Amino acid sequence: MEINLPKRLLIFASGSGSNAENLIHFFRELENSIIAEVVGIICNNSQAGVIQRAERLDIPCHIISNEQWQNKEFMIELVVKTSPHLIILAGFLKKFPVELINIVNGNVINLHPALLPKFGGKGMYGMNVHKAVIEYKEKETGITIHWVNEHYDEGNIIQQFSFTVTKEDTPETIAHKIHDLEYAHFPEVVKQLLLERS
Q1: CATH number for the domain including 99?
Q2: 133 is in which domain, residue-wise?
Q3: Catalytic (active site) residue 62
């Protein structure tokens, strides 16, 4: 008899880790715990808040240096040890290499704080994106969950969620609304992806 074990999720993060924590809690809920579990976090920033979150939530966290990140063999070995079914980029600011994408047969997704293809590419993250949305007088913005390929923010789109930008909005209010969308939708999209591909 085949036993369906929870899918193993590996998160890459560079910042505070609020979306990583949200995913961890989501997949620890009883009904979701049989679908997947977060088995590790890889972080390229020794000052990132995600490290403390991982420690508090008892999730193994590997802090990597720039030298380690550029060492393809090291990174491949690190990922292979975790045996992930899906890699999730949640606020990870480095360009993800093809070698790591291939390890999991392309099963790498990213969460981007804009409606791609608008406001994607190198340097377009966090407040940089929200300031650009205001500067270009966009009527709407939102989040994009997409597959990762060899180019920044150019992988196939999985799902998008949006809201209307008002005249009163500032980069700060947009950031708050973006976080609300991320917390509400990102874990559910990951769950549906895993169910569809199981």
Answers
A1: 3.40.50.170
A2: 7-196
A3: no
- Whether 172 maps to a domain, the answer reads yes
pTM: 0.96
Distances in whole angstroms, Cα of residue 91 to Cα of each of 11, 17, 122, 129 = 10, 7, 13, 13
Establish if 1 belongs to a structural domain: no
Contact indicator for 124, 132 with CB cutoff of 8 Å: yes
Q: Which residue has the tokens 């999720």?
A: 9
Q: How many domains is the chain partitioned into structurally? A: 1
Q: Each residue of 26-80: pLDDT tens digit?
A: 999 999 999 999 999 999 999 999 999 999 999 999 999 999 999 999 999 999 9
Residue 34 and residue 162: Cα distance in Å, rounded?
A: 30
Catalytic residue among 85, 112, 130, 146: 112
Strand ordering across the sheet containing 61-63: 61-63, 36-43, 7-13, 86-89, 108-112, 140-147, 157-164
Closest residue by Cα to residue 23 from 90, 103, 123, 98 = 90
